[in-house]
Design goal:
Length: about 190
């Protein structure tokens, strides 16, 4: 499929329907399949720039999907979510500073099915780990109750192709929330025009 055809598909997606200058597509190659993601650089520029720095410098090559969060493996949380989380190659240590949190109330991006977002422990702490939403996850938006600070997470793109792969990863063997074994990320790269 050509880049122009892929960008044409974006207008049918509610999250990115009004995105006028969507320019970046990335392909995540994993051992369970490929995921094509459109990044929303106009709405979440700092987050996209941060993610692409790790992509362009190869930090995700050999990375891992290491966490699966499902309704049945978060017994202590009153707010249930469904996501899979991935990160860079554990042997590579980039050491970049955290990126400022681009809150969903400012970007207009929401945590709907297939959204990619940055993992974080507190506001302005996201570095390289990211996650995909499985189903709509409004409690991850600004004001959501998943985190006590209610600041939400920085959504920054949407899956165009590969939701089946994301669901396969989510259903992979796990101990609590830890994928055992983790699912390998072979490579993440930009899709050329």
């Amino acid at each position: 499929m050509r880049r122009r055809e892929l960008l044409g598909m974006v207008t049918a997606l509610p999250l990115l329907a009004q995105e006028k200058n969507l320019r970046v597509l990335v392909k995540i190659e994993s051992e369970l399949g490929d995921i094509l993601v459109a990044l929303s650089g106009d709405r979440a520029p700092k987050t996209v720039e941060n993610f692409l720095r790790y992509v362009d410098e190869g930090f995700y090559d050999g990375g891992l999907f290491h966490r699966t969060v499902k309704p049945d493996n978060q017994p202590q949380s009153p707010v249930k979510i469904e996501v899979i989380q991935g990160g860079p190659n554990p042997e590579k240590k980039p050491g970049y500073p955290p990126v400022a949190l681009e809150r969903t109330n400012l970007t207009g991006l929401k945590h709907v099915d297939g959204v990619i977002s940055m993992a974080r422990s507190g506001p302005d702490t996201a570095t390289a780990d990211f996650f995909f939403c499985i189903g709509d996850q409004p409690e991850l938006d600004f004001g959501g109750k998943r985190n006590p600070d209610e600041q939400g997470f920085a959504a920054f793109g949407l899956v165009l192709k590969g939701l089946d792969c994301i669901r396969k990863i989510q259903q992979s063997p796990a101990t609590a929330q830890k994928l055992t074994p983790p699912v390998k990320i072979l490579k993440i790269s930009r899709v050329d025009a």
